[in-house]
Specification:
Elements lengths: L1 E5 L8 H14 L3 E7 H4 L9 H12 L3 E7 L22 H15 L7 E4 L14 H17 L4 E4 L7 H10 L5 E5 L14 H4 L2 H11 L5 E6 L9 H16 L4 E7 L30 H13 L5 E2 L5 E6 L8 E6 L5 E6 L6 E5 L7 E4 L5 E3 L7 E6 L5 E6 L2
Parallel strand pairs: 1-2, 1-8, 2-3, 3-4, 4-5, 6-7, 7-8
Antiparallel strand pairs: 9-11, 10-13, 11-12, 12-17, 13-16, 14-15, 14-17
Length: about 400
Amino acid sequence: MSFAILEDYDVGDDLRDVARDFALFRALGVRTWRGSISWLEVEPERGRYDFGWLHRFARLAADSGITLRPYIAYTPEWAARGGEDSVAWNDPPRDGADWTRFVRALALALRRHPNVRSLEIYNEENTPQWWDGTRGAYDSTLAAAAAAIREADPDAQVLLGGMVWPDAAWAGAACDAARVDAVPFHAYPETWTPDSVTVESYLHDFGWATFLPAWRAHCRGAPVWIDETGFATVPGKTERDQALWWARAIPTFLAEPAVQQIGIYEIKDLRAGAAAIGGAPNYHLGLTYSDRRPKLAFSTVRLLVRLLNVGTLTIGDPGLGVTVTRGTRGAGTPYVHDFIRPDGTQVLFAWDRDGDPELRVRLPRSGRTATEWSLDGTGRSVRAFDGRTIDSLRLAPGEVRIIEIDP
């Protein structure tokens, strides 16, 4: 598994500011960037390209040790077919020839940069604004772009555009239309979902049970990525709320074997007055404030990246033995997840949303010592550990226990 960070930039943005963000990427331990390449900025008029800033951006990223995975988005007005609202940027292309020519030119321009690993074909394409009433509109757009990219740069990966939810029918039709190297979707439970939807219920509530069979049948083994996820510190939500959200979200999503990448949105809050799609929450999703002062979640995510960003993880949940020894369970059961790293280290997460049970947890594998980590990244030894069982693990409502077990 791996991590990436979504942080959007406009063509012409000050690259000194970008370099400061890349320094935060490195401090966090995440060295993959995802963000838009705006068609309307790169080709403002038919046939007139401006790749200069993109080349400088890619060179800066390479110098900073950052891999780039851009997505193509934002249709220029001259190329738009017309959609369901008054703006053009979210419309599909009107002319397939214009679209194919642009994608080929972009792939040819970027292939000189080895750190540009992939191109993602349109963003949020399974929302109504991206199509004209037939699924074939996106399928043909994807197929044409995939062929153009692979012709221009055979080493570049082609990604299905990030779906706003795991849409079984959409993913199946798109994967039939073109071979893709990843199937991404977004997940913003507790920020842009009804109150009834939680981190723990999101996948179930949004059709995971039907998505998985469609993905297996149509997507030829392409990994599933949650390429955008995050929690907004809007008024009424604290830094601690956000940190606890990340401590729940990352193990919840990674406990699904199909999910192989987590995309963090985003490194910093938007500054006041900046244009934002999605309303007020979009200004407060950063792990830092707009002036790059870290929130508590920066330390939490840095801890989780250090513990889990180690390549292949084995999900240890089937081998866990969890017993509630006393206390009150919340709705459902306590949530307990175990991940086994290639070096044999285990990382255990345990929480209860609104109960306070005390647990005895028998691990899938033995270990020598256990360290519990706080949200701020500080650790302390776990004494109630006999090499295989953690005893008297008390859960407070909403709190997450994070324990690292050395092999």
